[in-house]
Write the structure tokens for this entry.
Amino acid sequence: MSMDVAVAVPKRRALLLKALLTALVVIAWVAISLEVLETASAPAGNAGAHHHHIAHGGALAFWGTLSMWMVMMVAMMVPVVFPWVAALARLGHGPPSGARRPVIRRPVMAAAFLAGYFAAWLGFSTGATVLQWCLSVTGALSSHMMENGLVRGAAFVLLGAYQWSPLKNSCLTHCESPFTFFLSRWRDGAWGALLMGAHHGLYCIGCCWLLMLGMIAIGAMSFAWMVGVTLFILLEMYVAELRWVSRAAGAVLIVAGLASAAVAL
């Protein structure tokens, strides 16, 4: 194989990977948009009716809600995880060592890493669905409760405070350098890639879990909230010079929460 061909093959694979992940993100956002439009155009398409359906729609409604959570996670988190998949593809078979190891194709490694990553998010989505169902059954997600200034204010303050927490900072520090993670915690084979993906997924959940749950209490599964959260996560994770934005946003949320509560009193 000539040098030109040897260089061209990885480039084609990288372009194919980008195309596949981009298509996946587009499909997920289109599905979300259609769901939002359908809910908005329905006669009972308000948040309260939607949550009532979750609570009393049986297993079908539960699985439907879980599926929607996973579609949202794909739409929002594939752009976030893409630099990690690209770094994994560039490393190929891991950091050099004297031991002989089985050769695993890069697409297999990338697919296994993504599978582990979204397995972690599946666990989160399952928990979020159960929480949403429980809150719906108790009436905590009724239209009246969601419009309550005290409830919304408390949610904003909680979100803002978390932006300043040591756990949030630790998870963001992990996300700064994919290469540092792979070089220090590399695991061989497809199973190793799966475990690395799950490991990274847990750190991403540590960064974003409260923002995601905010879609229930604040955004009411809002399309605008989803877009805003996605852009915010990308900014705070991959623009280190603007890391202060995370804490600044936390301060703004706390002030907004206190103002909302004060108005409601």
In short: The chain has a mean pLDDT of 79. The chain has one domain: 3-264.
